[in-house]
């Protein structure tokens, strides 16, 4: 009996659950007899009892609401949503804004449906009344929701006057309605709700502020609102905001406004100043090759790029640009100090002077590391020969490069090259070409290196490089498993300045990183790019020798670090620590 009673109780609860679910489904499939209050409480229950996380649940419900508003809500979907908007605040602050957004955005696709046009026009009066209730704090909705209602129902000044004073409207009623809204705008300004204030000002053509309002918007970083208000006020205010942007060095926005409103004659230099600012930012990031492309062979911009290179002390780039674009005359015109710097560089790097002193003492040079050869590998035969040499090494440095991508939201470019170096030779592998030629051989060769327990592989921030390699060449298994990896960065956590800073600390000279953000997809790579890439790999080996207590270069004694416990391996997503 006890068993039977328990079973009966469970069946009853199960049936009740099914009945509630059926009621909900039935309500959503036919809204003709479902009140706005019932609909909103059912919607809240669906959200609360959903098993997904908040964002997926919200998206699913949004699609559901979009569908059910076609299921004959009375008297129509636009009126029905206004009724729901009065109910939403009763569901609690936690859900109010989300459900409000869900309802209003679901109306967007219905605006073009002919069968609901009458309801749309009828609902405008109710929506205007709701907006007035929000303004009067009778119905507690966020300001963002108020703006969405204005847009969704295309509320105009006449609709607001109709809600305030009735359908028989005269001109004086429109004036009074505007004054009513103006008072609300002033309240918004006092509470620093500038964006909402601008939306109301521009929608209802409320003339109530001068240029000090523009300054206040910009100072509070409401730039889009400032531009919207300036456009509403007319050409004079647009010119003022452009000049303000120029004064505070916001050249991109100034340039966009000049183009949008055809004001080039009034601001002839803005476009050039903006291009100069772009080049300067790229130069500051070390993206000289990208800056050169952006200059697009415009002589004035190329001259400015030469100037930036001279200011940065990047004389190699100065010489390169001068030769490529015949800009020696420009360098001569820069004045004695800069001209002498350029001449000194040319004299130092001339064939009559030993190449050993071409690089300043601040930076480490490959020749100081006695590197015998840099080998470029872009064919399968060369790959096989190189791997055979590397397999005989006990310790190698590993690094990789890819073309930088500075567009927001875009994916990083594919890894272009991978450098592997012993203390005597550096190999630079053209991954893009080798992968195109024979991905299977490439995978096999690099697995022999990456998964070898006989070779200690050194890197700097190696996990980042391996992640990028896996993302770039996901079909290859060679970058997903490895053995005997040592990330040098983890041995010196307090060191600043990246690999260059570490090299300065351990070997007495840093690395010249001006080529870091160059175009690594161009072929052929320049000799400078090859030397930069090779140095990043070979310096790891020399730093490691010092870490092991073999300071070969007579600098920075007393830097011994316990390193064996930092060696890691990964095979099929499982990690383990290997110790010698």
Helix and strand layout, with pairings?
Layout: H1 2-29, H2 36-49, H3 54-68, H4 77-87, H5 93-105, H6 117-135, H7 143-152, H8 157-165, H9 171-190, H10 194-203, H11 211-219, H12 223-233, H13 235-247, H14 251-260, H15 270-284, H16 288-295, H17 299-311, H18 315-325, H19 328-332, H20 336-348, E1 373-377, H21 380-391, E2 395-402, E3 415-421, E4 425-430, H22 431-437, H23 439-450, E5 456-459, H24 462-472, E6 482-487, H25 498-507, H26 527-547, E7 568-571, E8 574-577
Parallel strand pairs: 1-4, 2-5, 5-6
Antiparallel strand pairs: 2-3, 3-4, 6-7, 7-8
Helix pairs in contact: 2-4, 3-5, 4-6, 5-7, 6-8, 8-9, 9-10, 10-12, 11-12, 12-13, 13-14, 14-15, 15-16, 15-17, 16-17, 17-18, 18-20, 21-23, 25-26
How does this model look, in words?
By secondary structure, the protein is an alpha/beta fold. The protein has 3 domains: 19-231; 270-349; 366-570, Ribonuclease H-like superfamily/Ribonuclease H (Nucleotidyltransferase, domain 5, 2-Layer Sandwich), CATH 3.30.420. The chain is 57% helix and 8% strand. It is built from 26 helices and 8 strands. It has helices at 2-29, 36-49, 54-68, 77-87, 93-105, 117-135, 143-152, 157-165, 171-190, 194-203, 211-219, 223-233, 235-247, 251-260, 270-284, 288-295, 299-311, 315-325, 328-332, 336-348, 380-391, 431-437, 439-450, 462-472, 498-507, 527-547, and strands spanning 373-377, 395-402, 415-421, 425-430, 456-459, 482-487, 568-571, 574-577. The chain has an 8-stranded mixed β-sheet, with helices on both faces. A hairpin with a 3-residue loop joins β3 and β4. α2 packs across α4 (77-87). The radius of gyration is 34 Å and the shape is elongated. The chain starts with a helix and ends with a strand. InterPro entries: 3'-5'_exonuclease_dom, Exonuclease_MUT-7-like, RNaseH-like_sf, RNaseH_sf.
């Amino acid at each position: 009996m006890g068993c039977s009673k328990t079973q009966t109780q469970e069946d009853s609860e199960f049936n009740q659950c099914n009945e509630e679910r059926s009621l909900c489904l039935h309500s959503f499939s036919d809204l003709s007899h479902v009140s706005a209050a019932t609909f909103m409480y059912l919607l809240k229950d669906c959200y609360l009892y959903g098993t997904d996380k908040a964002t997926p649940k919200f998206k699913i419900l949004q699609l559901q609401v979009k569908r059910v508003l076609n299921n004959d809500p009375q008297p129509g979907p636009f009126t029905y949503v206004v009724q729901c908007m009065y109910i939403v605040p009763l569901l609690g602050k936690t859900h109010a804004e989300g459900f409000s957004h869900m309802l209003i955005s679901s109306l967007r696709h219905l605006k073009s449906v002919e069968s609901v046009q009458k309801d749309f026009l009828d609902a405008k009066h109710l929506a205007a009344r709701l907006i007035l209730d929000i303004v009067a704090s009778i119905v507690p909705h966020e300001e963002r929701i108020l703006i969405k209602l204005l847009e969704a129902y295309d509320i105009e000044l006449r609709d607001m006057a109709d809600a305030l004073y009735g359908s028989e409207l005269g001109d004086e009623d429109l004036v009074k309605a505007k004054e009513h809204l103006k008072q609300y705008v002033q309240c918004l300004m006092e509470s620093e709700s500038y964006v909402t204030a601008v939306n109301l000002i521009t929608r209802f053509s409320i003339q109530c502020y001068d240029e000090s309002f523009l300054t206040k918007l910009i100072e509070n970083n409401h730039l889009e609102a400032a531009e919207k208000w300036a456009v509403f006020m007319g050409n004079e205010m647009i010119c003022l905001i452009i000049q303000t942007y120029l004064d505070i060095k916001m050249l991109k926005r100034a340039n966009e406004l000049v183009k949008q409103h055809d004001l080039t004659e009034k601001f002839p230099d803005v476009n050039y100043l903006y291009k100069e600012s772009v080049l300067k930012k790229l130069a500051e990031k070390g993206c000289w090759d990208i800056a050169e492309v952006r200059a697009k062979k415009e002589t004035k911009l190329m001259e400015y790029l030469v100037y930036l290179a001279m200011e940065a002390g990047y004389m190699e780039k100065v010489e390169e640009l001068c030769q490529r674009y015949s800009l020696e005359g420009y360098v001569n015109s820069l004045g004695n100090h800069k001209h002498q710097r350029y001449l000194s560089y040319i004299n130092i790097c001339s064939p009559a002077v030993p190449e050993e002193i071409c690089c300043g003492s601040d930076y480490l040079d490959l020749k100081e590391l006695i590197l015998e050869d840099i080998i470029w590998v872009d064919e399968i035969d060369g790959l096989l020969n190189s791997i055979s040499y590397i397999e005989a090494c006990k310790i190698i440095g590993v690094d990789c490069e890819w073309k930088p991508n500075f567009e927001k939201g875009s994916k990083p470019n594919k890894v272009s090259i991978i450098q592997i170096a012993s203390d005597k030779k550096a190999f630079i592998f053209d991954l893009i070409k080798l992968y195109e030629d024979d991905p299977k051989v490439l995978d096999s060769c690099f697995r022999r290196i990456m998964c070898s327990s006989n070779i200690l592989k050194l890197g700097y921030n190696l996990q980042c490089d391996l992640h990028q390699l896996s993302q770039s060449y996901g079909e290859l298994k060679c970058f997903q498993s490895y053995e005997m990896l040592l990330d040098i960065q983890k041995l010196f956590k307090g060191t600043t300045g990246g690999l260059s800073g570490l090299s300065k600390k351990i070997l007495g000279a840093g690395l010249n990183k001006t080529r870091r953000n160059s175009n690594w997809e161009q072929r052929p790579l320049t000799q400078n790019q090859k030397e930069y890439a090779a140095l990043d790999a070979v310096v790891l080996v020399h730093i490691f020798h010092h870490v092991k207590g073999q300071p070969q270069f007579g600098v920075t004694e007393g830097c011994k670090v316990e390193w064996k416990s930092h060696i890691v391996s990964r095979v099929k997503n499982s990690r383990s620590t290997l110790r010698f």
